Amino acid sequence: RVQDLVGHKIVLYAWTESGVSRVAVVDVEGQLDPAFEAELLQLKAPRPIQYAPKQRYGSLWASTDVLSPSGIVHFGGKAANYGMLRRYVPTNCPPAIAFSFDLWDDFLDQALPGGTTLRAEIAAQLAPFTNYPPDIAALKSSLAAIRSLFTTTAAFSPAQEQQITNALLSFFDPSRKIRFRSSTNVEDSEQFTGAGLYDSYSGCLLDDLDGDIAGPCRCDPAEAAERGVFRALRKVYAGFYNDDAFLERLAHRVNEREVGMAVLVHHSFPDEEELANGVATPRFRFAFGPTHASGDLVTQLGAVSVTNPDGNSIPEIVFADDLFGKVAFTLKQQSSLVPLGGKVMNWPADYEALVRLVNAVAAGFHQYYPAKSNLSLAFEYKKDVNLGVALKQVREVPQPTTGGSTSQVYLLDAPVTFSVAQKEGSDVFASHRLKSLWNLHTANISLVASNLARGIYTEGTCEYVDQGAVQRLLGPLDSWPGAWHSPAGTVNGWTTGSGSGRRDWRLQTSITTNLPAPRPPFLTQADFPKSLGVTYAQPVPILRGGAPYTTTNEAVALEVCPVITAADLPEERIFTNGSITIQTRFYLGAPPRDAIIIWTAPLLRFVETRITGLTTEPIVLTGYYSQTYHPFHHNFGEECIFEPWLEPGLSPAILTELDAANIQWIYVWSDYNRTIFWVLGRDGLLRRL
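Above: the chain's sequence. Below: its structure in token form.
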């Protein structure tokens, strides 16, 4: 459906509700007046983000063993958070150092061949781009030029190179590849992740110490050229000006003078030593200490990346639920790279070890943020030949603002078909007589009183049953006979028929005008419960307590037409009464996935009803209007109405026999112990068979 909307203006919004992610796409091509469209576009304006401005540390580098989240102002979020891994799981996290913003700032202050500084040249290149969105093509060209300055023109001074070399030699084996990872103060913070905006690179210190520029790489002979650490550092620095990174900062009104690139450094994980890699996203609840943690462990075999997948494989997904130290694992999805029934890591030992590691780090975060009773963290992990299960990154996952409400809400026209809900609490006689299909259009408006006073519906069609036949209303709702609507816009009314056949209709719409934060401020008519009521000029027959009565008022609930899924329940019933047999097949709705008690399944759709013994030929019904259902509590019983006169294409001979037998419809009541048949005659009277 979305592919069919290519070239159309759409409204796309997404949210999470009761733990379920939801996405809505509404086609608004040609529907919005300019003022309303401009108002909606203002909602897209990015909000400023909170970040900690960078500060000088007084040294070019430090061991991550001394870092904590507050170090984001000196070493960026990734490196500062790495300190939590080293503090709480040191044997399962490789030693690391971090280069501070001091090195970044000093690097920017170097003079370029033309005499200007690198910092000044960057500022000049970015000067035209102060508003969002910018001229994208021009911005891309400027950013490419800036990245080229870092990788081909700028260089570390001899003094800086010496300090960098000394730092690396004090921690790392120069013959092994060293990983240089981006760490800015606008990523991995409490308020903003910045995931995927920046780059990491590996370098070989021996390539810088061997006195030549000839390959191959001293740490990896398969690399034909040298891959030095200074080259890697400059490429990480250049990534600060990746297209998406700068656009994100511009959109959120980040002051470029307050942010920069620090670098986290540790030994690389060689692909050949990597047995598995993955991402864990647990949520921790600290009501009485770290009592409950749950979340997904997404793991893939070897070095096939989970964080940057190529789309050629499916990762393993395991849901871990840790309650008071007792961990339960549920396999949600198997990796496509392991044999059927296999797991990516040792089951359950490696998974239990991983849970212990993330719990230890989470406990540390809770000590750092004691006021947070709930905490969501994202971990990157690997299983390494030497380290076993190891953590390589942790970040807090910012949570949306909760509490309060969104008072300015917008209604978007998203046509959808409504039908009569055939479920517990309904009345089978009302459901049958008011059986209808609704395709309505709404206005595109903000849901304020002045707009509601004009009514929310513009035009549409209503297909309904009257006098034993399907009728239709169409066009603008205010053109329907006797049309009116309430001042609040919640009720639409009209009239059909005349004399004893007159019906006064009321369509009640429960309109919501505010939403809980952070739900996006958009609603469609599918979000509004609807009910339909009718007052009859002449009483109509019903059954109450097994006896015939009449009424002049009936009402039903409307619902978006159900869709059959693989989880729904195919059912079959056979009702008999003497020589009459009714065999009917239909679908009942599956229980909600979070249902914890027996529920009452509603009807989704009839498949077919076959009635024999009433006419010479069998009566076969497949239509919407000719079959109606109502379940009793927990589906311990049910009742149905079958009206052959409303089945398109039924044999005239059958209708002639039904007319002669004075039969309009057949009513069936059953509690699985007994079955009762009633008939509504062509004369309008109910009689029991």
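The longest helix spans residues 349-368.
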